[in-house]
Write a structure and sequence with these properties.
Layout: H1 2-11, H2 22-27, H3 37-48, E1 52-63, E2 68-79, E3 83-90, E4 94-98, E5 102-106, E6 112-116, H4 121-135, H5 138-144, E7 145-152, E8 155-162, H6 165-168, E9 171-180, E10 188-197, E11 202-211, H7 218-222
Antiparallel strand pairs: 1-2, 1-11, 2-3, 3-4, 4-5, 5-6, 7-8, 8-9, 9-10, 10-11
Length: 227
């Protein structure tokens, strides 16, 4: 159960003793302040305005103790009312839904695993944190993290250091970068999320092919059904 819990939380999205890249260190010299707060709030508002976001993902996990990396690819769905789905295609097909109080995983063979997290305050806090990161909930981000922000042209970077002990056990530093208004669009989008785990492992998610449908198809909605 602990493995399922950890897998679910990292898939929806990290400082310690992992080697920091130059760009990573730089963002943490730009704490959010009165001059950058309006742009930060604007980007968060743009991220939050779409009830459904779909696209593709590539996850790269660097396992520090083994000095190797693992790569997986697939599609994602972020639905404000329901949660997130990570539909992994390669190298091992599986589908994981992360809701407000559950994690549900299924495989093509029909095997299903469900973790009910109702009453688990740590999980609920992590679920809120992950949702806030992906949907741009500025209030929750500011309540739960020391926030850092920098912008250059259409590109922006947000650095997050958790304030809550339960979140720090999972992720010590989180970086998120993206674009706003690219190609004349008024929609902000997330390109990369990097999590530095307390274990020293580093996980990077690269998101692509973003689309913003008005709702979910019957099949997509069924992916959130853990029964």
């Amino acid at each position: 159960m602990k493995h399922i819990f950890c897998l679910g939380t990292v898939l929806v999205f990290a400082l310690f003793h992992a080697p920091a890249q130059a760009g990573d260190a730089e963002i943490f010299s730009h704490p959010l302040d009165g001059s950058t707060r309006p742009r930060f709030d604007g980007i968060c508002a743009d991220l939050a305005k779409n009830p459904v976001i779909k696209g593709g993902f590539e996850q790269t996990k660097i396992i520090s103790r083994l000095n190797r990396s693992l790569v997986s690819r697939g599609d994602f769905i972020i639905a404000a009312e329901l949660g997130m789905v990570w539909d992994t295609k390669t190298p091992f097909p599986s589908t994981m839904a992360v809701g407000r109080d559950y994690i549900f995983q299924s495989t093509p063979s029909g095997a299903k695993t469900r973790l009910d997290a109702r009453g688990n305050e740590t999980f609920l806090r992590l679920a809120d944190t992950i949702s806030a990161i992906f949907t741009g909930n500025s209030r929750l981000l500011l309540e739960n993290f020391a926030v850092y922000f920098a912008e250059a042209g259409n590109s922006w970077t947000i650095g997050l250091i958790p304030e809550e002990k339960s979140v720090r056990l999972f992720a010590a530093r989180i970086l998120m970068s993206g674009e706003s208004g690219a190609g004349g669009s008024k929609t902000a989008l997330i390109r990369d999320i990097t999590l530095y785990e307390q274990s020293g492992d580093v996980i990077t998610y690269r998101l692509s092919n973003h689309s913003y449908p008005g709702g979910l198809s019957a099949r997509e909605r069924s992916l959130f059904d853990s029964q």
